[in-house]
Amino acid sequence: NKISTQTGIGTTIAIAGVAMYSFIKARMEEEKR
């Protein structure tokens, strides 16, 4: 049970990290123009 909880948290952080990275990258691309 504890392992599945840690896995869920890790997955959530990973997805959030990718989303944040994509969002920041897109904003930086728009600022260049």
From TrEMBL:
The chain crosses the membrane at residues 6-24. It comes from the Eukaryota. Keywords: Membrane, Transmembrane, Transmembrane helix. This is Uncharacterized protein. It comes from Nymphaea colorata (pocket water lily).
